[in-house]
Design a protein that fits this description.
The chain is mostly helical. It folds into two domains: about 70 residues, Beta-Lactamase (2-Layer Sandwich); about 190 residues, Hypothetical protein af1432 (Orthogonal Bundle). It contains 13 helices and three strands; from the N terminus they run αααβββαααααααααα. The protein is elongated.
Length: about 290
């Protein structure tokens, strides 16, 4: 495995076989094991072959006892270099796929905003705020990534709505509002067959639902609404109130934060509201113009 003959191998030590960056860890585990401490039985480290090349190793080691006393260790080593190479290639491929997916998402978002210039940048600003709220709530990275992606295209369903309704400078009629309310369902239908690694279609479908069941399109309530959609709902409302719309001027961040605080635990998830307020008041978050 290391390229030495048996006689040469007998003269080697942990220090001569382990990569300089891993010697300290290997020695720590080895000395801890022989002194009876609770250290990992199985772990990975990098070894250095006789020719100087690096190999990745997995070791299983346990204390060797004689007469009830620890006199050394017995270790089993596996060369996992090829496995590591494949893992690294997969990671690089995944990074490229994520980058490509991000580019596609941006194109889709831009398509919606071309038809609705008054909300240009709205989706990305909502995505930025939603991601910050999720991070403040200390959610897993996988969930945060899903929220960011869904936020960037949460209004994709508006692509099916008449442009004159989207940019109408006065109050909507009942029929027009019903049309607007259809956009989460339309967005879901567009996205449901795309194999995202996150529940993007479901987040888009639920981002206008409210805790008390007064939202749309499914009138879900409480825990029926997934956490990603509850976060997006708050971010969406705050961004919409903060910025200009064709039917009213911008109301400002203070008014928006008072709105979500007033309806905390009624329309909006209280933990999400608290995290949102903290992001603005303590973390200094600002929407990008």
């Amino acid at each position: 495995m290391f390229g030495y003959s048996l006689e040469e191998m007998k003269k080697q030590s942990i220090q001569s076989l382990a990569h300089t960056d891993d010697v300290e860890m290997v020695m720590k585990y080895h000395s801890g094991r022989v002194s009876g401490k609770n250290v990992p039985l199985k772990y990975e480290w990098r070894g250095v072959r006789k020719d100087g090349s690096i190999i990745y190793l997995e070791v299983y080691a346990k204390a060797l006892k004689m007469g009830g006393k620890i006199v050394g260790t017995r270790s089993y080593l596996w060369d996992i270099t090829e496995r590591k190479r494949v893992e690294n290639e997969l990671q690089q491929t995944l990074k490229k796929l994520r980058k490509a997916m991000g580019s596609i998402i941006n194109v889709v978002a831009s398509t919606v905003e071309v038809r609705d210039p008054y909300t240009a940048g709205h989706q990305q600003r909502v995505a930025d705020l939603a991601r910050m709220i999720a991070a403040e709530m200390k959610l897993k990275k996988q969930i945060i990534d899903g929220i960011r992606m869904a936020g960037a295209i949460h209004d994709i369903g508006k692509i099916a709505l008449p442009a004159e309704v989207l940019s109408k400078p006065s109050a909507l009629s009942e029929v027009e509002f019903e049309l607007i309310k259809s956009h989460p369902k339309v967005g879901y239908e567009i996205l449901k067959n795309v194999e995202f690694p996150w529940p993007v279609a479901k987040i888009v479908l639920q981002h206008h639902e409210r805790l008390n069941g007064s939202g749309y399109p499914l009138e879900l309530s409480g825990k029926e609404i997934i956490i990603e959609a509850r976060i997006l709902a708050v971010a969406d409302v705050v961004e919409a109130m903060t910025n200009h719309r064709p039917y009213r001027p911008a109301l400002g961040i203070e008014v928006a934060l008072k709105e979500i605080e007033k309806n905390k635990d009624i329309l909006y998830d209280p933990k999400v509201v608290d995290a949102c307020i903290k992001v603005f008041k303590e973390k200094g978050f600002k929407f990008k113009t």
